[in-house]
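As a warm-up, study this chain.
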Amino acid sequence: MSQTYAKLEHEARLLSAEERSQLVDALLESLREGKIAEVEAAWAVEIERRVSAYERGETKLVPAEEVFAKARAIIAGS
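Now compare it with the structure written out below.
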């Protein structure tokens, strides 16, 4: 454990319960931000892949109504 970590933990324990809760929320949000950026980057790659496949004629578009109807039918059959 680094000295910085030990000092931060010690200082955090001196905070009120409400302040510790707010700190935890802020730290968790900072972790989510990294994951959100990672997911968005992955989706950008996937979107480009799908658009390229469509433009090359390798796939076709399916109306959302059809997709949702099929999903509902699958769920209803479960």
